Amino acid sequence: MRAEEDYVAYVEARLPSLRRVARLVVGDGHRADDAVQDALSVLYRRWGRLTDVANLDAYVHTMVVRACLSYRRHRWARVLLRDDPPDTPVESGSRQVEEWLTLRAALHRLPEAQRMVVILRYLCDMPVAEVAKVLKCSEGTVKSRTHHGLQGLRSALLEDAPARATVVTHRRGQA
């Protein structure tokens, strides 16, 4: 039986990854944190009985994604009091941060079904079969949504590329 210390160590090691996935799914940091907390509460109650789970990380990611989907389905019941500022680190001018923010914006332009598949396949590193189980659809549907989602990402990123190039050129011209 797993001890409470094992649970704490497991959660501390994976919390940043779980929060990142949840934020991508729901698009709001507060609701993402709520979904992660709900999933981790359920995980805590089940912790002692999880000895037969083959891939604990996939199991927990599935719990988080399902909690996020539940929050997205019930978002009409929540009142949004203000817009959240974007999550940018202190050094917001770095190229890596700009690329991440651009990718995140492109992901949120995708339809929800495509976004979910892309997040689970490429950010959670889940195989097609596991994504199909999580989203309760066929493997063919996962493959199709992956194809269309990646195509949509390419289009969105190509649309943004000239605007970013213009800004960079303009900055260089002033320096």
Low-confidence stretches: 76-82, 165-175
The proportion of residues forming helix, as a percent range, comes to: over 70%
Query: What is the arithmetic mean of pLDDT?
Result: 79
Q: What is the ordering of alpha helices and beta strands? A: HHHHHHH
The CATH superfamily of the largest domain appears as Winged helix-like DNA-binding domain superfamily/Winged helix DNA-binding domain
Separation of the first and last Cα atoms = 62 Å
Would you kindly provide a written description of the structure presented here, covering whatever features stand out?
This protein has 2 domains: 1-79, no CATH class; 91-175, Winged helix-like DNA-binding domain superfamily/Winged helix DNA-binding domain (Arc Repressor Mutant, subunit A, Orthogonal Bundle), CATH 1.10.10. The protein has 7 helices and no strands. The protein has helices at 4-26, 29-46, 56-73, 95-109, 112-123, 128-135, 139-174. Helix 4 packs across helix 7, helix 5 crosses helix 7 (139-174) and helix 6 crosses helix 7. The protein is globular and about 50 Å long. The model is unreliable at 76-82 and 165-175 (pLDDT under 50).
List the SSEs and their pairings.
Layout: H1 4-26, H2 29-46, H3 56-73, H4 95-109, H5 112-123, H6 128-135, H7 139-174
Helix pairs in contact: 1-2, 1-3, 2-3, 4-7, 5-7, 6-7
